[in-house]
């Protein structure tokens, strides 16, 4: 973080460029890399070399190409889950604050109740209950191509539906202040309805705050997805995410041979992603959140 502050409040170019590079690699890297994602070979557990820059796994598959495709899934879950939490949190928090009174108290009591539930346990139970019904639905809907991603879909839904709680609280606290402001009172006097006031006057004034918390939610969702995939609750083989690659690396460790690259490179990719997002999110918070000024 220290080299990102060459000047006071300077843009963290290094970390932003790093995150952009990691995302770009995951999106277009496989097109230019000669190795196959699913092809198994006899080159089992080879260390990094010019032919396999990150080495190979226990099935002889190139680890670099697997990390790139795994990062796609992790990024996809992170961004999609964060957008779901954004839509639910902003809508719920703004309605609760603007309605006020008993409605506000009842809605926020529900948030407090959901806060008491362990997030990861909730997602695990969700997967256990709905995985088979979802697979059956996808099969009968002729969406067999999505069957290997049924757990990822449930992960996406589960994480999105629990990560909105903080967003709702933050949005509610800001809307409670804004709804008493003069420009909102003027809009009421002019006869504008509540929906129009929220949409045109209040939500644009909390956009900066929402962007900040969205940026900080993305690494949280990515980390939770990686942890659940590490436990074997993520994408099904032969597909992979960064978490499942870390799990494969941990399972490959034995007293006879320690294939360090199976843990080091997926962990490095994940760590750099989370670090760059958190640093960029902190910079956005300093710039866009009035409370930190």
TrEMBL record:
* Name this polypeptide is given: ABC transporter permease
Recorded superkingdom: Bacteria
Q: Give the UniProt family note.
A: Belongs to the binding-protein-dependent transport system permease family.
Highest lineage ranks of the organism? Bacteria, Pseudomonadati, Verrucomicrobiota, Methylacidiphilae, Methylacidiphilales
Instruction: Identify the main location.
Output: membrane
- Short name of one Pfam family: BPD_transp_1
Task: Give the transmembrane ranges.
Answer: 12-33, 73-98, 110-130, 150-171, 202-223, 258-281
What InterPro entries does this protein's entry cite? BP-dependent_transpt_permease, MetI-like, MetI-like_sf
Q: Where in the cell is it found?
A: Cell inner membrane; Cell membrane
